[in-house]
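Quick review question:
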């Protein structure tokens, strides 16, 4: 049976140290007490956020060689403004959300885009948006996410590289964007308004909205979210259009699924929860053995499943890079969160130019 892992809070640093085995490296930014890596690009750069010893949130980007740069929104270095980077592209553009509890609305959140030189631009999806969550960026710099309007209705948005924003749909009380493709198609998930059923969705650049579900979904099976909701929940999507997640099947059984760029579904009877997929269709996630001990797994498209173990038994897998590098966060015996990177077995340390 699959169990849904909710990402808590986490972060990343420059003190990269050798992990236990299997090519695992752990890392944390200086003064981090909770590190959560969020996204990786084709070069191996990782972005995410961390909590420092003063309980303040900061952003970071880690180079492929382990150097970590930290950054903040205005007022965030020593104040209460929090920055949460969640996605980046190969051009080095980073997007996410900024929270300012000192504003007129304590729940106000704005989207941001950060350039490689550190310049940071904040934006709202609409003039009446109370929360704007930038959640994905494609290679051309188009950004997608969700926002709340003044009546707390949740909608999707797409922002062009020049700043023009278009909005779409009312997506229910829970929704998110997993990816925006090179052709500007948006992939995400939403909860039926007023209901308990999740669906995946695609939003084409021409405005065509389409919901999708695994064909064998059973609405009698609960558990895809907080053990209560049912339907099809997309947990990750790649830049090429692969989607993974899980769904409730007949007999009250949970299964993982993969949806190809052509829209073809297949059941993933991996031993656990798929939480990441890369451009080639390789997936990664977490599973429990017969003793209820957590392990990580990675499975290439049409390949054999491999198991791996970060330094402790409590962890989550966040993403998988183009070369099969898996990353996520783990928690030590003091429940302090750290970042980890697991390199593919075939990787070597040589760099070729």
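Suggested answer, residue by residue:
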């Amino acid at each position: 049976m699959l169990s849904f892992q909710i990402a808590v809070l986490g972060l990343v640093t420059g003190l990269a140290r050798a992990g236990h085995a299997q090519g695992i490296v752990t890392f944390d930014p200086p003064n981090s007490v909770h590190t959560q890596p969020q996204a990786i690009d084709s070069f191996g750069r990782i972005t995410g956020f961390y909590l420092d010893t003063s309980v303040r949130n900061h952003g970071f980007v880690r180079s492929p060689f382990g150097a970590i740069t930290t950054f903040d929104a205005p007022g965030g270095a020593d104040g209460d403004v929090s920055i949460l980077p969640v996605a980046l592209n190969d051009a080095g553009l980073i997007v996410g959300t900024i929270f300012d509890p000192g504003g007129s609305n304590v729940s106000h959140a704005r989207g941001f885009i950060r350039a490689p030189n550190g310049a940071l631009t904040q934006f709202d999806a609409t003039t009446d948006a109370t929360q704007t969550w930038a959640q994905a960026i494609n290679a051309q710099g188009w950004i997608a996410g969700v926002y709340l309007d003044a009546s707390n209705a949740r909608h999707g948005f797409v922002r062009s590289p020049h700043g023009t924003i278009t909005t779409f749909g009312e997506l229910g009380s829970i929704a998110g964007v997993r990816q925006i493709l090179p052709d500007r198609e948006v992939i995400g998930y939403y909860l039926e308004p007023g209901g308990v059923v999740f669906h995946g969705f695609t939003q084409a650049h021409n405005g065509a909205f389409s919901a999708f579900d695994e064909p064998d979904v059973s609405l009698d099976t609960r558990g895809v979210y907080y053990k209560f909701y049912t339907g099809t929940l997309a947990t990750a999507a790649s830049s090429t259009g692969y989607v993974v997640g899980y769904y409730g099947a007949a007999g009250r059984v949970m299964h993982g699924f993969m949806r190809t760029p052509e829209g073809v579904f297949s059941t993933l009877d991996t031993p656990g929860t798929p939480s990441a997929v890369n451009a080639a269709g390789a997936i990664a996630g977490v599973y429990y053995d017969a003793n209820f001990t957590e392990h990580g797994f990675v499975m290439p498209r049409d390949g054999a499943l491999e198991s791996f173990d970060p330094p402790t038994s409590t962890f989550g897998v966040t993403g998988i890079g183009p070369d099969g590098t898996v990353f996520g966060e783990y928690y030590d015996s003091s429940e302090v969160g750290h970042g980890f990177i697991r390199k593919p077995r075939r990787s070597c340390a040589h760099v070729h130019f």
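Why it works: The chain has a mean pLDDT of 88. The longest strand covers residues 32-40.
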